[in-house]
């Protein structure tokens, strides 16, 4: 099993930056592709970004492309989400997930494990 713990969320002004962290337990972290999703009140969980097991392949939702960067450090069992130029519409609870789908997936049901989420609030 993999346990995931997110951190790094908070309150930021529009145009600002935040870096989210997702730390995984277990020795099998490097076997999983990882993804970041977000969910705003009353909305479905939305794909943000994903990264393959080795970190060499990433893809993003169109809404965050060019502003967000996903990366991972397998030696630290950690995946990151660098968020720049934040907008009010980025406000949500952000979740990281682990999947055995090679390369990652934009479909939340492909993910086997989830963290508890971290709140990102963007003030206008």
Describe the protein in words.
This protein has 124 residues and is an all-beta fold. The chain has no helices and eleven strands. The protein has strands at residues 4-7, 10-13, 18-24, 33-39, 46-51, 58-60, 68-73, 78-83, 92-99, 113-114, 118-123. The strands form two sheets. Strands 2, 4, 5, 6, 9, 10 and 11 form a seven-stranded mixed beta sheet that branches. The radius of gyration is 13 Å and the shape is globular.
Poorly predicted runs are none
Distance between the termini: 40 Å
Which structural class fits the helix and strand makeup? mainly beta
Secondary structure tally, helices: 0
Structure summary, number of beta strands: 11
Query: Averaging pLDDT over every residue, what do you get?
Result: 96
Q: Which assembly state applies to the chains in this document?
A: single chain
| Tertiary shape | globular
- Run of helices and strands: EEEEEEEEEEE
Fraction of residues in H or I helices = under 10%
Radius of gyration over alpha carbons?
A: 13 Å
Strand content: over 45%
Short description, anyone?
The chain is mainly β and 124 residues long. The chain has strands spanning 4-7, 10-13, 18-24, 33-39, 46-51, 58-60, 68-73, 78-83, 92-99, 113-114, 118-123.
């Amino acid at each position: 099993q993999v346990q995931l713990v997110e951190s790094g969320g908070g309150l930021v002004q529009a145009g600002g930056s935040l870096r989210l962290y997702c730390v995984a337990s277990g020795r099998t972290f490097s076997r999983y592709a990882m993804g970041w999703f977000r969910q705003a009140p009353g909305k479905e969980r939305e794909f943000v970004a994903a990264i393959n097991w080795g970190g060499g392949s990433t893809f993003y939702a169109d809404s965050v492309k060019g502003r967000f960067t996903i990366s991972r450090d397998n030696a630290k069992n950690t995946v990151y989400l660098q968020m720049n130029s934040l907008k009010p519409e980025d406000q949500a609870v952000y979740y990281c997930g682990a999947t055995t789908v090679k390369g990652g997936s934009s479909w939340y049901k492909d993910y086997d494990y989830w963290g508890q989420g971290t709140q990102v609030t963007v003030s206008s």
